[in-house]
Amino acid sequence: MVETLKVAILGAPGVGKTAIIRQFLHNEFMEVYSPTACQCIYRPSVILNDSMYELKIMDVPNLTAFPANVSQEWSDLKCRGLRNTSAYILVYDICSLESFEYVKMLRQQILENRSGCPNEVPILIVGNKRDQQKQRFATRRTVAVLVKKTWKCGYIECSAKYNWHIILLFKELLISTVCRACKH
Ligand code: GDP
User: To the nearest 5 percent, what fractions of the chain are helix, strand and coil?
Assistant: First the structure.
């Protein structure tokens, strides 16, 4: 039987959530921004270590204008079945401190609504738009240390525009999700 792993991709509007999924699934990128209007679910099959998995990737429309009220957004997300996902991808734009603050609050909401334990569910923090790194608000190292050491989350930077590290980020997520499932 093929195991299904439910993955929610969350973050502030415009950080590139849909662009990351599109690049992963279709190898395409669109410069024009059209906000995600309704919840989209994608179901690619992937192979890891000779086992096949079905990913159920949920691209969720942002409910409030940016900077949003994350608690309000999260309570609505709970209703959409995002409370019991296998893993979360939290995306921010490496040039936007506000979008990083948003990710910080989302992570807090996830922990509070699950067991409160950082090891309960895999959370991968993704810094997108790496191609614009001259305008980044902090060095990669500064963010990586905070995310990995303090938050105990995975961290990766990517560019959906240039398809840089897109496959790698899904691979990392899959490895940490499958490994965690094996340990329990
Ligand atoms: P979402 O609201 O988080 O789903 O954001 P989108 O995926 O719709 O992307 C928002 C805007 O950012 C669009 O205009 C994309 O073309 C642009 N974008 C997304 N990823 C990248 C990237 O890696 N680099 C650059 N330069 N632009 C990006």
Answer: 40, 25, 35
Domains with residue ranges and CATH for the chain: 3-182 (3.40.50.300)
φ, ψ dihedrals at 143, nearest 5°: -70, -40
Spatial separation of the C-alpha atoms in residues 147 and 154, rounded to whole Å: 7
Q: Over the chain, what is the mean pLDDT? A: 87
CA of 129 relative to ligand 1 center, distance in Å? 7
3-state secondary structure of 2: coil
Model pTM score: 0.92
Q: What is the per-residue DSSP string for 113-142?
A: HTTS-TTSS-EEEEEE-GGGGGG-SS-HHH
Using one digit for the tens of pLDDT, what is the confidence trace for 102-150?
Answer: 999 889 888 887 765 666 789 999 999 999 999 999 999 999 999 999 9
CA atoms within 13 A on the CB side of 47: 2
What atom in ligand 1 is closest to the CA of residue 132? 26
* 16 C-alpha to ligand 1 centroid (Å): 4
Residue type, 130: R
134-145 in b/e form (b: 16+ CB < 10 A) is eebeeeeeebbe
